[in-house]
Amino acid sequence: MARGGVSIKSPEDIEKSRVAAQLAAEVLSMIEPFVVPGVSTDRLDQICHNHIVNVQGVIPANVGYQGFPKTILTSVNQVVCHGIPSSERILKKGDIVNIDVAVIKDGWFGDTSRMFFVGAPSVLARRLVETTYEAMLAGIKAVKPGATLGDVGHAIQTVAHREHFSVVREFCGHGIGQVYHDDPNVLHYGQRGEGLKLQAGMVFTIEPMLNAGKRDIRHLPDGWTVVTKDRSLSAQWEHMVAVTPEGYDVLTAWPGGTGSYAPI
Beta-carbon neighbour count of residue 37 at 10 Å? Predict the structure, then answer.
């Protein structure tokens, strides 16, 4: 156990985390062809649920978690996070959507999310989505033993602010393993050299949320959905990362590679 109560996982534990993480990543790869104009977010949820339960044979971690009613979270356009799939939310050309999925395999959690374009996005939407990915990548590349969580947050906010985007501060990455949301909290902003010092064996998510406008948010009456206060677009990416003696290991690496996105 590291200082501050953050768990240090053995190589065997990390491999168990990787198995769950890869299953979550595979769900995002599977669903990509279905993210098209005219589909409802509830239909995407149904497809993912069926795949997780009947194909992968594992547990959808989000169903019933703190009362959440669905398998995936679908956050469209100005939705920052925690969007609830709905039969009434029909995707249209130009939308951007984050799909967030988590599974449980043999008691270990896998958690990841990525952005999808529904048809051709606007110039601003594409720049926001690509910058958010770049910011996540910068945060991941700051991970190594002896670095701090402040280094990770600083790397993320530097990329965001370069493009005049804002970083949502109310939500953060988190430790993960046999507990879904564990210590440490991984902020997506910060100062170099500040915060928890990283050690090999730590496993956590890095999942920045960037807004095209101001960082302010508000919660909708459903108790889950979070939107930008100024109705500007928002984007998020999420990977699970293990700290290794040499640096980092991305546990949720995509099965089909990174496509047009820069490799990790």
Answer: 12
**CA-based end-to-end distance of the chain:** 28
Residue-wise pLDDT tens digits, 129-183:
999 999 999 999 999 999 999 999 999 999 999 999 999 999 999 999 999 999 9
Backbone region of residue 77 per phi and psi (left: phi > 0; alpha: psi in -120 to 50; beta: other values): left
Task: Write out pLDDT tens, residues 23-34.
Answer: 999 999 999 999
How many CB atoms lie under 10 A from the CB of residue 164? 9
**How is residue 178 written in tokens?**
């046999």
Residue appearing with tokens 């496509």: 259
**Residue 50: partners with Cβ closer than 8 Å, 6 or more residues away:** none
Cα separations (Å) of 168 from 56, 68, 139, 207?
33, 22, 15, 11
- What is the DSSP secondary-structure string of 40-51? BHHHHHHHHHHI
Our measurement of the distance from residue 213's CA atom to the centroid of its chain's CA atoms, rounded to an integer in Å, reads 20
CB 220 within 8 A of CB 174: no
Where is 99: in which H helix or E strand? strand 96-105
